[in-house]
Specification:
It holds the Pfam family AAA_lid_14. One of its GO terms (molecular function) is DNA binding. Keywords: ATP-binding, DNA-binding, Nucleotide-binding, Phosphoprotein, Transcription, Transcription regulation, Two-component regulatory system. By secondary structure, the chain is α/β, with parallel strands linked by helices. It folds into four domains: about 5-125, 3-Layer(aba) Sandwich (Rossmann fold), CATH 3.40.50; about 140-310, Rossmann fold (3-Layer(aba) Sandwich), CATH 3.40.50.300; about 315-385, Helicase, Ruva Protein, domain 3 (Orthogonal Bundle); about 395-450, no CATH class. The protein is about 45% helix and about 15% strand. It contains 19 helices and 16 strands. The chain has helices at about 15-25, 40-45, 65-75, 90-95, 110-125, 145-160, 175-185, 205-210, 230, 245-260, 285-290, 295-300, 320-335, 345-350, 355-370, 380-385, 395-415, 420-425, 430-440; strands at about 5-10, 30-35, 50-55, 80-85, 100-105, 165-170, 195, 210-215, 225, 235-240, 260, 270, 275-280, 305-310, 340, 375. A five-stranded parallel sheet has the order 2-1-3-4-5, sandwiched between helices. Strands 7-10-13-6-14 form a five-stranded parallel sheet.
Amino acid sequence: MSDTAPHLLLIDDDADILRLLTIRLTAAGYRVTTADSGQAALNRLDIERPVLVLSDVRLPDRDGLALFDEIRARHPALPVILLTAHGTIPDAVEATSRGAFAYLTKPFDGRMLLDKIAQALALTAPTPIEAPRGEEWRESLISRSQRMAELLAEAKLVAVTDASILIRGESGSGKEVLARAIHRASPRAKAPFIAVNCGAIPEQLLESELFGHVKGAFTGAVANHRGLFQAANGGTLFLDEIGDMPLALQVKLLRVLQERAVRPVGAAEAVAIDVRILSATHRDLDAAMADHQFREDLYYRLNVVTLALPTLTERREDIPLLANHFLATVSEKYGRRVNGFAPDALEALSTAPWPGNVRQLYNVVEQVCALSTAPLVPLALVQRALRAPGIEVLSLAEARQRFERDYLVKLLKLTGGNVADAARLADRNRTEFYRLLQKHGLTPELFRADEGPVAEGRQE
């Protein structure tokens, strides 16, 4: 087995179980290390950290949950799947509430185990917080998606030129973060980077903000004001939401870009500037040009190179990385001891729609960190932050079973517990119908009582 294969640590005091699981997991492409006791497992962890731990809950030297707590204390982000031949619902609830990724009762289906391992590794892949040597320029762009890798490769190529770049992307997708990264990768990295949101400043103030003004140019101009173009001289000026710039200012911006000089409001002479322009928009500029809301000549000046940022839902593999990175940042900021997300909480984040993209994800993480009272953020807090109702995701078999039971209950209610009538409505013979009732623990006689149905076994 290759040393690059994902490394699993398997803990069980049953030699036969160790041997069989090792064969199965190795055949599935994993590299397996085994331990037959809790202490042996901890020793193994001191030597080499695996990507996932599979542990029996009954070990000769300690309780499996106690071992799990020790592993969690040493490696908070390391996923653990617990295995037992004596599973109970309270044990499973206790294990998952303390942060275990999954709890499987022996004998378990081999495919289910492999699926759980794959899910755990997909949700808990390591976060590349430190950029590789030579890639520090992009350290704030946390990603492992192929889509982002291709985008960043293009960004690095054009960063070393002086070409104007138009960054397209939805609100909250990280356009300014990308612009700052391009500046850091450029020859202008040691000069100023200045950002301005063209849609957030009133039109009458934006001209002065960009180009500056001289004393007395208008009411309230009590002193000379150096605009952002001059402030960014030698560096990069980032014009965010350029699609919201008024047409009158678009004409003046075009002149600045053509002449490489800026004339402050009220001034008689222009001042030469050396500024690299990056711009961004979430608007469809092609449609804006067609509606005569954006100048075509300015568009071609700004759009020498286009970089399109994907939405967060187009790079879902980055969500666990970003969520854990933001949680580490926010927990340090607030002085909170929050180590990570419960597995179902992380899965809810990974499958959410994210209309607000990365900015919304950061806000959600900040909220759950502020409200969390446990080392692991629970699902309920994530759902509250997402303002989403609790959605239970069932397997197809579980969904069928639940539907079948609910259907039988409705028939028995409708017929007052008369099995012959209920079986006829279900288009089944009485013998088959009785088997279905027995399977779901339903007693027809109880539906004939005034107090309504009571089910034997699991209650809904």
